[in-house]
From TrEMBL:
It is an enzyme of class 2 (transferase). It comes from Fervidobacterium pennivorans (strain DSM 9078 / Ven5). This is Transcriptional regulator/sugar kinase. PANTHER family: BIFUNCTIONAL UDP-N-ACETYLGLUCOSAMINE 2-EPIMERASE_N-ACETYLMANNOSAMINE KINASE, ROK (REPRESSOR, ORF, KINASE) FAMILY. It comes from the Bacteria. The keyword Translocase does not apply. Coiled coil: none annotated. Its EC number is 2.7.1.2. The keyword Glycoprotein does not apply. The lineage of its organism: Bacteria, Thermotogati, Thermotogota, Thermotogae, Thermotogales. Belongs to the ROK (NagC/XylR) family. Keywords: Kinase, Transferase. InterPro entries: ATPase_NBD (IPR043129), ROK (IPR000600), ROK_cs (IPR049874). One of its GO terms (molecular function) is glucokinase activity. It holds the Pfam family ROK.
Length: 313
């Protein structure tokens, strides 16, 4: 059985044809989103991409992982910051009418946790917390095998848990959110803020300041980089500890570009969370790096189809 996953982003979207048995991506392509051309043109380009990759294959449905507030029951994008005219937009219905296939739409962070459940580190787990650390911080939660979305379908905004009261201003308007301290955007901001005090830092010898540059410099003993990484780990440890106390997951999966830092991030994170959790929670969870890497978006979107099919049985 084949399914299609669409990872919708503000700059590019990726479409993959996925074998539902093993999560193997048989074909995939990437296209520019071109939001400025308007939502109908974007949907038409998405439909054309689906037709290209599914030529010669039978598939059962399409999942779309979209940023923003999503009414997943109706396939409607209620609001998405990077898509100005996508207010109460029936994305699922528009795409379905072009392709004559069922289309399921879900918030991209929720799609991420579904991808981990079906094809990633969460396979075989019924209680999962997943965090994706990229431009922002997204999160999703599965409890008893069910995706938690809340009353209006917009719950589990894990990136907007406040972990540093009076901390940096977040894009959401609050101060000290996890996203304002542990995203790639936040790491770059903290580095640039430290430039005046640490002008000789290894960070500023790179062509462009990025989260990867900061972590690489920290591995080499750079003081500014190590200070930033320590702040990131502290913020993440507080957030993850809270999520463990609230949701009691058997696994916490961390993905996104920042997660590729590896041991310099995960080793101190595991140690700090172990110190922070209540005694009754010790040994009840594991914290792991997502194995899905570049394909997390496509596999997460495809997983929406599998999850909906299971829910309808």
């Amino acid at each position: 059985m084949y399914i299609v996953g669409i990872d919708l982003g503000g700059t590019f979207f990726k479409v993959g044809l996925v074998d539902a048995k093993d999560g193997k991506i048989v074909r995939k392509i990437e296209r520019e989103t071109k939001v400025y051309e308007g939502r109908i043109k974007v949907v038409e380009r998405m439909a054309q991409a689906v037709l290209e990759i599914t030529e010669g294959f039978e598939y059962t449905g399409i999942g779309v992982g979209s940023p923003g507030s999503i009414d997943h029951d109706k396939g409607i994008v209620r609001f998405s910051p990077n898509f100005p005219d996508w207010v109460d937009f029936e994305l699922g219905g528009e795409l379905s009418s072009l392709l004559n296939k069922p289309v399921y739409v879900e918030n991209d962070a929720n799609a991420f946790v579904l991808g981990e459940k079906w094809f990633g580190a969460g396979k075989g787990h019924e209680h999962i917390v997943a965090l994706t650390l990229g431009t922002g911080v997204g999160g999703g939660v599965i409890s008893h095998g069910v995706l938690i979305t809340g009353k209006d379908g917009i719950g589990t905004e894990l990136g907007h848990v406040i972990v540093e009261p009076n901390g940096p201003l977040c894009g959401c308007g609050n101060y000290g959110c996890l996203e304002a301290l542990a995203s790639a955007t936040a790491i770059k901001r903290m580095a640039l803020e430290g430039q005046r005090k640490f002008p000789e830092s290894e960070i500023f010898k790179a062509e462009e300041v990025s989260a990867k540059v900061v972590f690489d410099a920290a591995k080499n003993g750079d003081l500014l980089a190590q200070t930033i990484v320590n702040r990131v780990v502290n913020a993440l440890a507080i957030g993850v500890t809270n999520f463990i106390h609230i949701f009691n997951p058997s696994i916490v999966v961390i993905g996104g570009g920042v997660s590729r830092a590896g041991d310099i991030l995960f080793k101190p994170l595991r140690e700090k969370v172990e110190r922070l959790v209540m005694p009754s929670f010790k040994g009840t969870y594991e914290i792991v790096q997502s194995p899905l890497v570049e394909d997390a978006g496509i596999l997460g979107a495809a997983s929406i189809v599998l999850q909906r099919s299971m829910n309808q049985q």
